[in-house]
Amino acid sequence: MRGATRRLAALGVLLAAAGITFSIESLVPPLLSFAPYVKIGLANCFVLFVIVCFGARDAFFFVLAKNLLTALFAGFFALPFNLAGSLCAYLAMAGLYNAFFPRISLISVSIAGAIVCNIARTGVAAAVMEAPSLFVQLPAVCAVSVAAGIIIGVLTTFSIKHLPERLTKFE
User: Fold this and answer.
1) By CB distance 3.0 to 4.6 Å, which of 43, 92, 151, 156 could disulfide with 18?
2) Residue 75, by phi and psi: left (phi above 0), alpha (psi -120 to 50) or beta?
3) Alpha helices (runs of H) in 26-54, residue ranges in sequence order
């Protein structure tokens, strides 16, 4: 039971950190003025970390909890954007990680997650605003996504490599 309690406590701390990171990032002006829903998504560092250290099952529940928690900060109007992006990023990252890691790097996994996340968010924006013309933004959105994915992948790789093993091994 001690292991399960330690695991749950660690996930709780990571969830709190993801919520704080999301809150701080929401104070930063949009990266693209024509697509204000596009962000770096630094809280996804925690999602990728949970996929690697805890597994896809725990990461799925982590993503759901993260979105409900951050909806309290950002307002529930942002939930469809955030949930669509997070779930799509989770599916891409967990799938690629489980199928191809270590043949592909965490940076590649993160880039794929970031691209899929922002495509999903663009899709939600197009649906909510009834403006399919928003898909014209996808090349710029994907370029920002690649940069964001690199940042998130590097941060996550650095965290996993340099944190003490007792903080990264929860099996």
Assistant:
1) 43
2) left
3) 44-54
**Which residues neighbour 33 within 8 Å (Cβ) at sequence distance 6 or greater?**
none
Distance of CA 16 to the CA centre of its chain: 14
Judge whether 66 and 46 are in contact, CB under 8 Å: yes
Instruction: Give the CATH number of domain 2-167; options: 1.10.1040.20, 1.10.10.10, 4.10.520.10, 1.10.1760.20.
Output: 1.10.1760.20
Instruction: Give, in degrees to the nearest 5, the angle at Cα 46 between 96 and 70.
Output: 115
Q: Look at residue 148 and give its three-state secondary structure.
A: helix
User: At 164, phi and psi to the nearest 5?
Assistant: -60, 145
pLDDT tens digits, one per residue of 116-130:
999 998 999 899 999
Asked if residue 106 lies in contact with residue 152, where contact means CB atoms within 8 angstroms, the answer is: no
Residue ranges in the chain whose pLDDT is less than 70 = 1, 37, 166-168, 170-171
Token look-up 């949970």 returns 50
Residues 6+ apart with CB under 8 A from 84: 120, 121, 123, 124
